[in-house]
Amino acid sequence: MGFVKKNVYELSGNPFNEIGKEWFLITAGNGENYNTMTASWGFMGVMWGTPSILCAVRTNRHTFKFMEDSDIYTISFFDESYRNALNFCGTKSGRDYDKAKETGLTPIEIDGAVTFEQAKRVFVCKKRYSEMMNQESFTEKSTYDKWYSTDPMHKQYIGEIIAVYENE
What is the pTM of this model? Predict the structure, then answer.
């Protein structure tokens, strides 16, 4: 197996399943100093004329600082056999654990960004826009209350997809 560069316009799959049900890892930093976290919220589409992904990171997550400090990051998808690893990466902090060591995931660099050897698909993204969510912008108070009454807000990042790789 190895990563093969793909054309983003020729990919198959259902982003609703891949993002919301299968989950993914957001990874930022470099080979010596990075963090990864599991996410299940985001969007894929075309923004400013380029294929793009929107992901969101809460300000209290260890990955937040890495996203703030990085221009390049990855969005990595895995097959179902890595569900436990993704669960670990979403419930444990990189402040307290070496997530790669604990899960058996093998970090590698592709195009100057960190991902994992076991990923089935990797989007290498260049940060194009970021913005904090704010309470005043919610049109329904119930949505804010459900997701943010006890947890910090998310910062949204729109990344241009500069490369896609699939593990074949």
Answer: 0.95
Which of the listed CATH numbers 2.30.110.10, 3.20.20.150, 3.30.420.10, 3.30.750.24 matches domain 3-167?
2.30.110.10
Strand-pair category, 121-132 with 154-167: antiparallel
Residue with tokens 């259902």: 14
What are the extents of the domains in the chain? 3-167
Tens digits of pLDDT across the chain (168 residues): 699 999 999 998 889 999 999 999 999 999 999 999 999 999 999 999 999 999 999 999 999 999 999 999 999 999 999 999 999 999 999 999 999 999 999 999 999 999 999 999 999 999 999 999 999 999 999 999 999 999 999 999 999 999 999 998
Mapping DSSP to helix (H, G, I), strand (E, B) and coil, where does residue 60 land?
coil
Secondary structure element (H or E) that encloses residue 38, with its range: strand 34-39
* Distance, CA of 16 to CA of 20 (rounded, Å): 6
Give the side-chain half-sphere CA count within 13 A for 46: 4
Residue 61 contacts residue 68 (beta carbons within 8 Å) = no
- The Cα 34–Cα 40 span in angstroms is 20
